[in-house]
Write a structure and sequence with these properties.
D-amino Acid Aminotransferase, Chain A, domain 1, 2 domains, eight-stranded antiparallel β-sheet, 6 helices, 17 strands, pyridoxal phosphate, amino-acid biosynthesis, aminotransferase, transferase
């Protein structure tokens, strides 16, 4: 859903981004030879603004998005905004679109920062100019099931990422390749696809757009971010919250065979929050998991969403007030 304003600024290769400006939401003009169109030189981020009961607006760990974009830009040979510039631009975008932030408990304002190689380049090389842009849209739940448990399909014919590739950065070129597997899975009634490592096809990696956790007793495990897996900000936060709640959390190689013994499985991400997984189908075998009241997933989701929306005190310095 289009909102009122977007933030935009540009810089030439080898220079720094200057202070941008807010403009009415609308189309942008690109050269047919723009680096992003020809060679996929682009990154995106995703974060949300939340409205408190008193009307105040909050951002959740925006500096982590800024750091991740900067890391991705280095990998993709791009100029990038500073951390302070990134956070300030988010605040400006939220304030300009504050009437679009849903009431407490009704959703959030999703913010999509883009870093694009917009300068013209025909030979394979970094673009001579870059554009940093942020637009926004009010959102509800990411999955059509809402808070209902997800049903995942373990994909063996397609890979999401490969060793020494770009799976650990949020480049735009990571996402179109997952569409075929995702569409095929949804036609069969699944919510999304769970990918395995490309080298051995024995270890879990991540879902199309979110990280995955498995739980057995008081132990929670999640695949280590070893270069092929995106280091999610919700993932990082959930790990810390879980340890605060007395759970043992392991970041390691998680074998697909461990799905058989798991009590719970859940996904994490900016868009999905902490989403319960009701079943996973692997090699025609369907495995089901505990969901609902009293689960680890619910406990962690209640805590992180409470911090994000200001109903639980932020003792970690994760919340940034927008004023």
């Amino acid at each position: 859903m289009p909102t009122d304003y977007m933030y935009i600024t540009k810089c030439c290769e080898g220079q720094n981004f200057g202070q941008g400006q807010l403009s009415r939401y609308g189309n942008i003009e690109l050269s047919p030879s723009a680096g992003v169109l020809n060679y996929g030189q682009g990154l995106f981020e995703g974060t949300k603004a939340y409205r408190k009961e008193n009307g105040g607006l909050l951002l959740f760990r925006p500096e982590e998005n800024a750091i991740r974009m900067k890391t991705g830009a280095q990998r993709m040979c791009m100029a990038s905004p500073s951390i302070d510039h990134f956070v300030d631009a988010l605040k400006q975008t939220v304030l300009a679109n504050k009437r679009w932030v849903p009431p407490p408990g009704k959703g959030s304002l999703y913010l999509r920062p883009l870093l694009l190689g917009t300068g013209p380049v025909l030979g394979l090389a970094p673009a001579p100019e870059y554009t940093f842009l942020i637009f926004a849209s009010p959102v509800r739940n990411y999955f059509k099931e809402g808070s209902a448990p997800l049903n995942l399909y373990v994909e063996e014919n397609f890979d999401r990422a490969s060793s020494r590739g770009t799976g650990n950065v949020k480049t735009i070129s990571n996402y179109a390749p997952v569409l075929m597997a995702q569409i095929q899975a949804k036609k069969r009634g699944f919510s999304d696809v769970l990918y395995l490592d490309s080298d051995t096809k024995k270890n879990l990696e991540e879902v199309s757009s979110c990280n995955i956790f498995i739980a057995k007793g008081k132990c929670i495990s999640t695949p280590a971010t070893n270069g092929t897996i995106l280091s999610g900000i919700t993932r990082k936060s959930v790990i810390e919250i879980a340890r605060d709640h007395g759970y043992q959390v392991e970041e390691r190689a998680v074998a697909v065979d461990e799905l058989i013994e798991a009590d719970e499985v859940f996904c994490t991400g900016t868009a999905v929050g902490v989403a319960p997984v009701g079943s996973i189908t692997y090699q025609d075998k369907r495995m089901e998991y505990i969901t609902g009241s009293g689960t680890i997933c619910q406990e962690l989701n209640n805590t992180i969403s409470g911090i994000q929306t200001g109903t639980i005190e932020d003792k970690k310095g994760w919340i940034v007030e927008v004023d």
